[in-house]
Fold each of these.
Amino acid sequence: MIRVQREDFDLGQEYAAFADQDAGAGAIVAFVGRVRHMADPDQPKSDDNLIRSITLEHYPAMTQKELERIDREAQSRWPITSSLIIHRHGKLFPGDQIVLVLTASPHRDAAFEAAQFLMDWLKTKAPFWKEEETGAGTRWVAAKEKDDDAAKRWK
Amino acid sequence: MIRVQREDFDLGQEYAAFADQDAGAGAIVAFVGRVRHMADPDQPKSDDNLIRSITLEHYPAMTQKELERIDREAQSRWPITSSLIIHRHGKLFPGDQIVLVLTASPHRDAAFEAAQFLMDWLKTKAPFWKEEETGAGTRWVAAKEKDDDAAKRWK
Amino acid sequence: MKVLYFAWLRQKIGMSEESIDLPAHVSDVAGLLDWLSDRGPEFADALTHRQVIRVAVNQEHVTFDAPIKAGDEIALFPPVTGG
Amino acid sequence: MKVLYFAWLRQKIGMSEESIDLPAHVSDVAGLLDWLSDRGPEFADALTHRQVIRVAVNQEHVTFDAPIKAGDEIALFPPVTGG
């Protein structure tokens, strides 16, 4: 299932509903991505590095379709019995939740790999763009080469 | 942090506390392992394959120490900023939660890999033994070769 | 044909969406980008670095050699950065 | 020396824990397993298949060549199956 929304989500509630409707799956993996506090977490704190807010723009007509495609691809590659992707858009602040991925499978590795795959493909294919506001001003986040590399390992 | 207990756990509560005390970590991965409904999920349903209950025996003096060792090993291999392992023991029923692993990191891959590593090592090193009750009687679950193989990939 | 612009492409071009009449000689994405670039300095500026331009036709990622036709919804945007 | 038995080893041997006086000639895990096997049919049966016996000395996994001494806590168990 796919949900694209402005509102926050509650992992506890989402997990409870997800786990209930797929009681036979022995392994469940959740991933939560949150707004960082620092534009570059590997650099020291400074006003230019501290994030004040981010704004997530997206392409609504495509987002839903693309996430469904990514989800179908995961289902075709791993024996997962359920999956859920929630992605937020709009203005968000450090520590806010951005994205939730849940996968369930009888097999632990399938649940882990499918969740990692969903995140990697989402990061490189789902039409979202982040604009970051720091002490240095507002800038569009550049795509990361390591995200491209991460996505490529699933060929 | 390590917790070994008879009682159930609530992922929502655990995640909320975990995420709060490590607000700077952009990536959080959760794994929940549950009691399967079938002894062999790849075989058809039958009374002999349906699990009625399992009993998890453990070696209390060693369990805590071994889980701490595994946790330290994960911390030394990946840049994770927090981790939590909860493992239950005693009598459990199909669908019941057995184990929770939570990892947090500024880096998505580190959170995923550390969680997978923790589960792989826990499965092959933490002193727990499962006895399964099905229509065919009660038997000790045999260790799985694929769990050994999974643990070996982290050499 | 509807053309949509996102993120810094939207900002540089100064609009999020427009309707254009596709000239008869433009038959693929590369041709559309060339034609758009000639429409004014804001287009030329936004579309200079083709390696950071991504394109979707009817909500599907495509490469620059993808054919386009009247009635398509074309979206131009930088590499995505969600998640 | 305290010896602990878990899972089917506990069931086959018929107890979960005992105190033994380590004979002077026994200095490693393999020697202990040999000595225990001679103590009765339930021990012999439980300890026949060494490839499915795992051992911890003072709560740490060890191999059969690990040294042991009086005062150690030795645990014998099958390969673990938690998680």
Amino acid sequence: MELKCTKDSGRLVVAVKGRMDAVTAPDFEKGCAAEIDRGEKDMIVDLGGLEYISSAGLRAILSTAKRLKAAGGGIRFCSLKGMVQEVFTVSGFSSMFPIHDALDEALKD
Amino acid sequence: MELKCTKDSGRLVVAVKGRMDAVTAPDFEKGCAAEIDRGEKDMIVDLGGLEYISSAGLRAILSTAKRLKAAGGGIRFCSLKGMVQEVFTVSGFSSMFPIHDALDEALKD
Amino acid sequence: MGRRAETLCLPAGMESLEAFRSFVLGRAAAWGLPESVLQKVDLVLEEVLVNSISYAYPEGRGQVEVACSLDQGLFRLTVSDRGRAFDPLARKDPAPVTDLDKAAVGGLGIHLVRAMSDEQAYRRTKDKNELSIGFRLPDQTPPTPPRTT
Amino acid sequence: MGRRAETLCLPAGMESLEAFRSFVLGRAAAWGLPESVLQKVDLVLEEVLVNSISYAYPEGRGQVEVACSLDQGLFRLTVSDRGRAFDPLARKDPAPVTDLDKAAVGGLGIHLVRAMSDEQAYRRTKDKNELSIGFRLPDQTPPTPPRTT
Ligand SMILES: Nc1ncnc2c1ncn2[C@@H]1O[C@H](COP(=O)(O)OP(=O)(O)O)[C@@H](O)[C@H]1O
Ligand SMILES: Nc1ncnc2c1ncn2[C@@H]1O[C@H](COP(=O)(O)OP(=O)(O)O)[C@@H](O)[C@H]1O
């Protein structure tokens, strides 16, 4: 899994690539926690490069989302595809979080 | 396994690289048979690049050697190393065939 | 008569995940499972293995065995351990939670296993947990070619 | 108490050789076997597997199981099949032939198995052939460091 945090139009974009599984999911959680510690409250997670996610990945996302909400902010996702989209649907994550087709739409919101 | 047949000082040198196992040994036998069909009677087999040999490899060598002898010629080996040398020793092949340390010695003989 | 199952048995540790994965996906790919099914197998395998590894042997480490077979269009994955008895299919599937404050962290693995596979069966025989998951292959009938008149 | 054996069970076909090989060498390397022993394991595994694959199931195909374990400096490889009973260790080791005309093509596999391993045992239990081969690891005592005075 590869994690890249950048600022786009003043907003934090976390781009995730590869596989988010039981082995790599903690890296996502840690990477996001570091940004929250740095004062970030809102996060756009770009999953365009994510090929695989398991319940360990969902767990890492959920605790990140809870942290952001506790900080008074929130999380949104964009560019889900294939099995990642399917896992978001069957887990209810697609109803729990704002989901955008592409990054530019997420940035407009 | 990689097989390269060249002429050096007018003598046929067959250089073998990689692994000579149950899957690849028939390729050695076929490659040599083609040379014998073309009229070759004597062969120097350079095993300097061979990393592994199993009984299937010994079997392929033995039938090639029998063919060459039947044609009135013979086979010799050079540059054995590691486990290939050990397999030649415990199988008796080192006593059955002329073995040389290096190709230039085999060519002198 | 179907194919006999092919099995791999390794210690119940996270370091075994990758070997199990390449064994199962290697077999499944060799048997011609399409990418869409491979992804489901990949996910279900991780969920079931991680549970065995995390919960089956609270004191010390045991072994986990993974078997796969293909029979009449059904790819079957069976994961067994000799840990404490646990029937994951007896758990009521959680009602979908869409409120972040109410969502519990965890507990989604077994839900995904059900959602991503076509058949599930649990057996306890002697001291063995055996969870068997079936994936139906898409119909292989080739599409009717378009008419060219 | 040693490690429990780790096993892989696949169809008795030449197409299974590579999967068995990467399983066994992967385990052996993970357990720290030195290259010199790995090469012997590689060879012995091929010889024993090719025999099971070639001779155990004359009519149709069955399964072969490979187990490996490490216990007190002995790496043990066990190959089992449910084919016809055959004890390779009962064969008299052939006298070394050094005359090309007298050398028979074939029959060197079991000889190499013996020569390249430290222990061999065959068991027939019920309908199962079980050939177990042990490789002793070189003494791990680190060499005394040279004095620097
Ligand atoms: N093999 C098992 N043995 C014992 N308990 C298990 C086993 N698998 C799952 N469980 C229990 O079921 C619960 C739900 O499992 P799961 O849906 O995979 O979510 P998670 O593991 O993320 O909590 C686990 O928290 C655990 O208490
Ligand atoms: N698993 C087995 N079942 C039945 N017969 C076997 C088995 N393994 C070996 N044999 C017999 O033993 C002989 C010697 O085997 P081996 O030393 O490996 O040489 P090779 O297979 O090259 O002939 C074989 O030719 C075969 O007749």
